[in-house]
């Protein structure tokens, strides 16, 4: 029983980290119709920025802020230089964002050195709770709670604010949104920056969870996030949360019971969904 | 009468296709100007070109005397044009209320007044205020789309085939609505249903194969059986 709970909590925490990455990705796709294969690069930059700031200041809050700031700046630059010129052309988007992903990964090595960095957990989030025989690692619970809070916050923005309303309308019909006098390119930029900040935030939370950060982790998590977006339905936030948890749990249970399949399980999940519901589990558009 | 909108020798490409090959069109303030022509003539493309959704490649489009053909769509809309597209452009998973709110530019009394006005004109919208736009009937979607364009205080409304797919009684209501909206705003109407066009239109412009072929008072077209037969296949 303790074992099951631990595998469950572990899977849920991993799922939440993937969700932070997938949330931005799915909105960027749903609204802007942009396939961004560089999204994992924003995640890894967030992770390194957080570790670097944490080492320098010993403050986890500052580390998070550092990551968010990195996400915002990189998001702005990426949208303006890489994404904006290729709106409406998926092939070009795939090529240029994949290329940029490699650049972001290599730049990590240039800026932070070629080796992986160790990442610590702040003392107030270290350790565990014991409930009977069950030992629950605090930091994992922290990630899970944070993930749900972020989900609720994004849902609040989407459902209760004017900008959120415009984003939802834009996912459905971009031409009409513009014909109503809304400068959609600006909304694209804000959405992209928000997505980048979320990815960087995910990276910052990931670092103490895995204990180390390395340049290639962006590629690994970026792929997981894409799988999640496809399973959940491109453009659907609840779909991404559901699929991220599914992928997190599947990975965690498989790693324990059928380790040989633990890497393949996500691909299998995605294949099954694509066969039976090609639009994803929660399609955003009709 | 002053020309609110004036298109001169407008050419538009969609991808590599040369769709509009010289459209001339004017809409006079306070009138209903009807764009007519057979299927595929280029009526919808003309409206999309005015809105900048398929930008003009050459030619000029003046709105209140100022060129708008190079502006992006949101700026064209903000300069005072409202668009009711052929498919109504309703945000299907947004409620009626949210569809209206997307269109609201401010919280002013003037906007509130216009919203009250359209809700009075289209009581169904009030009735289904919290219903998803996608679940409305065809006629109700048409009303919602017109309401949305109207509350922006547009001085010119571009309405694309509002009678399409509607039952005759509902078409009657749309005609009434257009007569009512005409008191507040100038209207450009694309209409295949000639009965409707002749009932609400003041002037007509005939488009054929992407070109303006005729323009005049509606009364002239009503009398001209040959022109109707040649360009509209009726009469
Ligand atoms: N996206 C597009 N790509 C290529 N050709 C298009 C596109 N949209 C429209 N066309 C072509 O442009 C021409 C004009 O189309 P348009 O929709 O403006 O006609 P219309 O007068 O509105 O017709 P209808 O009465 O059927 O609505 C048609 O020949 C159509 O096939
Ligand atoms: Mg048409």
The parts of chain A where pLDDT drops under 50 for at least 5 residues are: none
Strand order of the largest sheet of chain A: 1-4
Task: Please give the number of β-strands of chain A.
Answer: 4
How many strand units of chain B? 10
Instruction: Give the overall shape of chain A, derived from the CA principal axes.
Output: globular
Summarize the helix and strand pattern of chain B as letters.
Answer: EEEHEEHEHHHHEHEHEEHH
CATH superfamily label of chain B = P-loop containing nucleotide triphosphate hydrolases
* Coarse shape of chain B: globular
**Whole-number tally of structural domains of chain A:** 1
Mean pLDDT of chain B: 94
Strand order of the largest sheet of chain B: 6-7-8-3-9-10
Helix and strand succession of chain A? HHHHEEEHHHHEHHH
Uncertain spans of chain B, ≥5 residues at pLDDT below 50? none
Q: Determine Rg of chain B (CA atoms, Å).
A: 17 Å
Give the helix/strand class of chain B. Answer: alpha/beta
Family (chain B): Belongs to the ABC transporter superfamily.
GO molecular function (chain B): ATP binding; ATP hydrolysis activity; branched-chain amino acid transmembrane transporter activity
Pfam families (chain B): ABC_tran
Domain ABC transporter (chain B): 5-234
Short précis:
Chain A is mainly alpha-helical. Helices cover 75% and strands 4% of the residues of chain A. Chain A contains eleven helices and four strands, in the order ααααβββααααβααα.
Give an account of the 3D structure.
The complex is a heterodimer of chains A (286) and B (235). Chain A has 286 residues and is mainly alpha-helical. Helix content of chain A is 75%, strand content 4%. Chain A has one domain (2-216). Chain A contains eleven helices and four strands, in the order ααααβββααααβααα. Chain B has one domain (3-86, 152-232): Rossmann fold (3-Layer(aba) Sandwich). In chain B, β9 (203-208) and β10 (211-217) form a beta hairpin. The longest helix of chain B is centred in the last third of the chain and has 15 residues, at 168-182. The structure holds adenosine-5'-triphosphate (ATP) and magnesium ion (MG). Magnesium ion is lined by residues 43-44, 86 of chain B. Chain B: Keywords: Amino-acid transport, ATP-binding, Nucleotide-binding, Transport. Chain B: GO terms for molecular function: ATP binding; ATP hydrolysis activity; branched-chain amino acid transmembrane transporter activity. Chain B: InterPro entries: AAA+_ATPase, ABC_transporter-like_ATP-bd, ABC_transporter-like_CS, BCAA_Transport_ATP-bd_LivF, P-loop_NTPase. Chain B: Residues 5-234 form the ABC transporter domain.
């Amino acid at each position: 029983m303790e074992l099951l709970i631990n595998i469950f909590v572990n899977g849920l925490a991993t799922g939440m980290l993937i969700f932070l990455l997938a949330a931005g990705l799915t909105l960027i796709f749903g609204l802007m119709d942009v396939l961004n294969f560089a999204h994992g690069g924003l995640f890894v930059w967030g992770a390194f920025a957080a570790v670097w700031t944490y080492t320098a200041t010993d403050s986890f809050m500052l580390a998070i802020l550092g990551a968010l700031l990195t996400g915002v700046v990189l998001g702005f630059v990426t949208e303006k230089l890489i994404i904006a010129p290729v709106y409406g052309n998926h092939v070009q988007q795939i090529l240029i964002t994949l290329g940029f992903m490699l650049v972001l990964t290599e730049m990590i090595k240039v800026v932070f050195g070629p080796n992986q960095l160790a990442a610590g957990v702040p003392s107030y989030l270290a350790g565990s709770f014991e409930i009977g025989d069950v030992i629950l690692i605090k930091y994992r619970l922290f990630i899970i709670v944070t993930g749900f809070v972020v989900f609720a916050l994004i849902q609040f923005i989407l459902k209760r604010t004017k900008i959120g309303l415009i984003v939802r309308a834009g996912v459905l019909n971009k031409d009409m949104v513009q014909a109503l006098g809304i400068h959609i390119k600006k909304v694209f930029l804000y959405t992209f920056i928000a997505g980048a900040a979320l990815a960087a935030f995910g990276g910052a939370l990931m670092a103490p969870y895995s204990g180390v950060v390395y340049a290639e982790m962006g590629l690994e998590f970026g792929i997981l996030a894409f799988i999640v977006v496809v399973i959940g339905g491109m453009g659907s936030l609840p779909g991404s949360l559901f699929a991220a948890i599914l992928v997190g749990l599947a990975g965690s249970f498989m790693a324990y019971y059928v380790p040989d399949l633990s890497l393949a399980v996500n691909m299998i999940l995605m294949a099954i969904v694509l066969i039976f519901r090609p639009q994803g589990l929660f399609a955003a558009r009709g | 009468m002053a020309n609110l909108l004036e298109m001169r020798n407008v050419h538009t490409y969609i991808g590599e296709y040369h769709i509009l090959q010289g459209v001339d069109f004017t809409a006079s303030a306070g009138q209903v100007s009807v764009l007519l022509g057979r299927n595929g003539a280029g009526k919808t493309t003309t409206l999309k070109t005015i809105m900048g959704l398929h930008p003009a490649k050459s030619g000029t489009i003046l709105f209140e005397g100022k060129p708008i053909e190079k502006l992006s769509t949101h700026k064209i809309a903000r300069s005072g044009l409202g668009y009711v597209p052929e498919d109504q452009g309703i945000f299907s998973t947004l409620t009626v209320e949210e569809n209206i709110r997307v269109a609201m530019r401010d919280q002013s009394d003037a906007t509130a007044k216009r919203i009250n006005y359209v809700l009075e004109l289209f009581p169904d919208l009030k009735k289904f205020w919290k219903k998803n736009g996608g679940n409305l009937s065809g006629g109700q979607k048409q009303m919602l789309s017109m309401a949305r364009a109207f509350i922006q205080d547009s001085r010119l409304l571009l309405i694309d085939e509002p009678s399409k797919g509607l039952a005759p009684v509902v078409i009657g209501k749309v005609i009434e609505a257009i007569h009512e909206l005409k008191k507040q705003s100038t209207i450009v109407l694309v209409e295949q249903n000639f009965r409707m066009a002749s009932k609400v239109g003041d002037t007509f412009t005939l488009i054929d194969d992407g070109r303006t072929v005729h323009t005049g008072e509606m009364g002239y077209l009503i009398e001209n059986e040959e022109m109707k037969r040649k360009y509209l296949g009726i009469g």
